[in-house]
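ingest -> validate -> predict -> emit
validate: passed (alphabet ok, no gaps, 241 aa)
predict: started
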Amino acid sequence: MTMIRKKQAPAETRERILSTAEALFMERGYAGTSLRMITAKARVNLAAVNYHFGTKEALIREVFERRLGPLNSARIAHLDRLEAQARGRALGVEQIIEAIVVPALQVNRDPLAGGAVFLRLLGRAFSEPGETMRDILPAQYRQVVVRFKEALVRALPQVSDQELTWRMHFMFGALSYTMAGNDALKLVATCNLEGGDDPESIIRRLIPFLAAGLKAPVPGSNGKRATPAGRIGSVAGRKAA
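emit:
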């Protein structure tokens, strides 16, 4: 008796291509993953990829947009709830960081939202940005950066805009590096670390670490505002004279 193979729905095919591409991009990087690898692992032909996405760049964009949109919306919603509870008072720095990292922890626990695979891929995207990533990430993060910077300005009125920009850069860098995996952790570990593979344990350590960096004294200011960069040369010149 001849078995009739059930034809797969286009939406199912599309989802399988996206999930396969996500896993391969995380494992091999964007440049190291070809469409041929994706089609072989997803068990589809190249025509299916071209039909649903058109190009590899469009496929990469779709992989990120389907996950980052909900993740960043959850971050803003978390921040909104905390601000509503604060009733007009500035949030603590730790609370603001919590609103960034807790939704990521929820993604890590939920395979349907991408799980640990997507978080590692996201970390890799920041450490290996290509031309496509330079278009995707700023567009996806623009609203998040604006909202969280507003909250941090209120929480840290003593920190200048320029200094806060640097500190947010370092904060997102540490977050991305942490999400990318614990390979570096294994390099520096001299003992068996508890919680090295436990996201909740990592977050308990990460939040106070990031908060300390955001709240640190401004370099060279003895607790006061740093001298604006444009005046450093003239001040030094007057002292030398």
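Residues 56-86 form the longest helix (31 residues).
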